[in-house]
């Protein structure tokens, strides 16, 4: 995979999907791989796309990436300073609103990223179909997980299914990047 942007996007998506957090004394949450770093890497990859590919979806996805970079940077500091714990205990609706906003923005982002990559990869229709199907699975799992969060056993399996779908999505993008080079 040459460095035409796909490498940055693959690593950026890994940063976004993999969340390793440390919770210290119920005071604050430290995300070891912050999502905003992932969106920053993705943005760098999209900038490289401009020099290698012509794409009508590129401006939309770049703007969404900037919005998500800023939004997740704010969420990172909300977690870091313990504000999220306060919101989840005394202002539950605000914490839910932030979580739901993050989910909706991320799914819109994935839709446009999927469309961008499919339009770049004109050669391999099977990988394009697989990428779009995996996007649909991710949407389904993310929406279902919002409803099963109160049921830990079911929620666990839904989250594992979502992790598998996300990793397969990222690997499919890597495979497309290998072909496009």
Concise synopsis of the structure shown:
With 181 residues, the chain is mainly alpha-helical.
Question: What can you tell me about this protein's structure?
Answer:
By secondary structure, the protein is mostly helical. It contains 7 helices and 2 strands, in the order αββαααααα. Strands 1-2 form a two-stranded antiparallel ribbon. The longest helix is centred in the middle third of the chain and has 29 residues.
Keywords:
181 residues; mainly alpha; two-stranded antiparallel sheet; 7 helices; 2 strands; 4% strand
Radius of gyration: 17 Å
How much of the polypeptide forms β-strand, as a percent range?
under 5%
Order of helices and strands: HEEHHHHHH
| Strand order, sheet with most strands | 1-2
The main sheet comes to: 2 strands, antiparallel
Q: How far is the N terminus from the C terminus?
A: 7 Å
Strand tally is: 2
* SS content category: mainly alpha
**Uncertain spans, ≥5 residues at pLDDT below 50?**
none
Proportion in helices: over 70%
Q: Which whole number gives the mean pLDDT?
A: 83
Dominant shape = globular
Task: Specify the number of helices.
Answer: 7
């Amino acid at each position: 995979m040459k460095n035409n942007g796909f490498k940055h996007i693959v690593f950026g998506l890994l940063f976004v999907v993999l969340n390793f957090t440390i919770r210290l004394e119920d005071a604050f949450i430290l995300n070891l791989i912050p999502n905003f770093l992932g969106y920053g890497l993705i943005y760098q990859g999209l900038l490289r796309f401009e020099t290698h590919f012509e794409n009508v979806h590129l401006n939309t996805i770049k703007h969404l990436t900037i919005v998500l970079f800023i939004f997740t940077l704010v969420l990172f500091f909300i977690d870091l300073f313990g504000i999220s714990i306060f919101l989840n205990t005394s202002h539950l609706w605000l914490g839910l609103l932030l979580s739901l906003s993050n989910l909706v923005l991320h799914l819109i982002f994935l839709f446009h990223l999927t469309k961008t990559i499919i339009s770049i990869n004109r050669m391999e229709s099977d990988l394009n179909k697989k990428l779009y199907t995996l996007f649909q699975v991710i949407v389904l799992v993310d929406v279902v997980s919002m409803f099963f969060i109160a049921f830990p056993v079911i929620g666990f399996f839904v989250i594992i299914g979502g992790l598998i779908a996300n990793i397969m999505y990222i690997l499919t993008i890597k495979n497309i990047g290998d072909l496009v080079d």
